[in-house]
Amino acid sequence: MGPRRASRYGLEFSDYLAQADEEILTVVQIETQAAVEHIDEILSVEGIDAFFIGPADLSASVGYLGKWDAPPVLRTIDRLLEAGKRKGGPAGIFAVGPDHARECLERGFQFVALGSATEFLVQGAASALERVGWRREQ
Question: Taking the model in full, what pTM does it have?
Answer without folding.
Answer: 0.77
